[in-house]
Write a structure and sequence with these properties.
145 residues, Lipocalin, nine-stranded antiparallel beta sheet, 9 strands, Hsp_HslJ-like, HslJ-like_sf, signal, DUF306_Meta_HslJ
Length: 145
């Protein structure tokens, strides 16, 4: 019996240390002053467009957000629903350049997901937003590391 207690304690400690440092309830301070680049849409890798751009999101002071959908730029206010913990960008304004081919498909998926309430999963290196339509996976790409 004396050997079981330390063994169980050690197992619990190791399990806690092996987690991916996932944030259980995301707060504005968890998101502010970070920059993420889109790596996947619905599990499919996202490549750079012909101009070398990848869709991204940056959340700054007071939850001001901006980024690129891969073709157009956007700005808005990031919000976290205090009751559900869901995320969206409200008051989104976008440029209106003509996007061709896959760029338009990517643009629609990114814009619709960011502007709708989505479940948010955050850990040290990634941000995932998912709703009934799409799942966007971003990787952390802070400007200064």
């Amino acid at each position: 019996m004396k050997k079981i207690i330390p063994l169980v304690s050690l197992s619990l400690l190791l399990a806690a240390c092996s987690s991916q440092d996932k944030v259980s309830m995301v707060t504005p301070s968890d998101l502010q002053h970070h920059h993420w680049e889109l790596s996947e849409i619905d599990g499919t890798p996202v490549a750079e467009n012909k101009f070398g751009q990848v869709p991204d999101i940056e959340i700054g002071e007071n939850m001001n957000s901006h980024g690129s959908t891969g073709c157009n730029s956007y700005r808005g206010m990031a919000e976290i629903n205090a009751e559900t913990g869901e995320f969206r960008i409200s008051k989104m304004a976008m440029t209106m350049k003509m996007c061709q081919g896959d760029a338009m498909t990517t643009e629609r998926a990114v814009a619709s997901t960011l502007s709708a309430w989505s479940t948010i999963d955050l850990n040290k290196q990634s941000l995932e937003l998912s709703n009934d339509e799409h799942t966007l996976t971003f990787v952390l790409k802070d400007w200064v590391q």
